[in-house]
Amino acid sequence: MGHAEYAAALGLSRHALRIWRDRLEESGDEMDWRSLLHPSARAQLSSAANCARRQYRLTPDAVDGRSHRRSFTEEQKRAIVAETERPGVVVAQVCRRHGIATSMAFRWRQEFGLTARKAPELALVEIADGAESEPPALAALRNLVRPPDGMVAIEVDDGRRVFAPAGASAAAVKRHLAGKEKAS
C-alpha cells in the first residue's frame, strides 16, 4: 500500500501523514498518534447511542437508561395544568418556571380533557311580554350579563339588550336590527 492509499484509509491527507511520520521518527517514542487528532478527524467507534449510554452510565440505579427524565405525579401535572388555565396566564411562562416543554403542558391539558378554548357562541334571547311585565329576578339576571371586552350594551326600544362593538352608535345599531327584522 502506498502513502496516498494509506493516508486515504486513515482519513488523512498525504501531507498530514508525512508530518505525523516525521514527528514519530523524531521522538523515538511509541505513541498512538490517533489520540492526538482533532475529534472531527477521529474514527467513530460506535454510532449506536444505546452502546454509549450503557458504557458511560454513571449510577447503578439508572438501569432503564432513562435516568435523565423526570417524572411527575398526577397531582403535579394537574397543578401545572390548573396554573395554565388561570386567566391572563401565558402557558410558556408557566412551563419555563417548572422546567418543562410547552408541548408537555399541552399534552397534559389534552390528557385531562382541557383542549383549546373555543370562542363563545352567541344566542338570541327574546323576552316574551316586554320589559314592563318582566319579573324582578329576570331584570337582575339581565344586569349580571356584562358586555365582553371591546363591546357595549345597547338597550333596544322593545326592551331587548344587544352587544355591539365599542364606539358603535346606538341609533345605527337599532336601525340595523330593524332592517334585519323586516327582512326575516
Number of strands: 2
Low-confidence runs: none
Going across the biggest sheet, name each strand in turn.
1-2
- Tell me the count of domains: 3
Distance between the termini: 95 Å
The radius of gyration is: 37 Å
Mean pLDDT: 75
Helix content: 40-55%
Strand content: 5-15%
What's the SSE pattern? HHHHHHHEEH
Shape: elongated
In DSSP terms (H or I, runs of 4 or more residues), the helix count works out at 8
Main β-sheet, in a few words? 2 strands, antiparallel
Structural class: mainly alpha
Protein name: Transposase
InterPro entries: Transposase_8 (IPR002514), Trp_repressor/repl_initiator (IPR010921)
Organism: Mesorhizobium montanum
Characterization of the model:
With 184 residues, this protein is mainly α. It has 3 domains: 3-55, no CATH class; 74-111; 136-183, no CATH class. The protein contains 8 helices and 2 strands. It has a two-stranded antiparallel ribbon with strand order 1-2. A hairpin with a 5-residue loop joins strand 1 (151-155) and strand 2 (161-165). The radius of gyration is 37 Å and the shape is elongated. The mean pLDDT is 75.
Short synopsis of the structure:
By secondary structure, the chain is mainly alpha-helical.
Summarize this structure as a short list of keywords or feature phrases:
single chain, 184 residues, mainly alpha, 3 domains, two-stranded antiparallel sheet, 8 helices, 45% helix, Transposase_8, Transposase, Trp_repressor/repl_initiator
SSE inventory with pairings:
Elements: H1 3-10, H2 14-27, H3 49-55, H4 74-85, H5 91-98, H6 102-111, H7 136-144, E1 151-155, E2 161-165, H8 170-183
Antiparallel strand pairs: 1-2
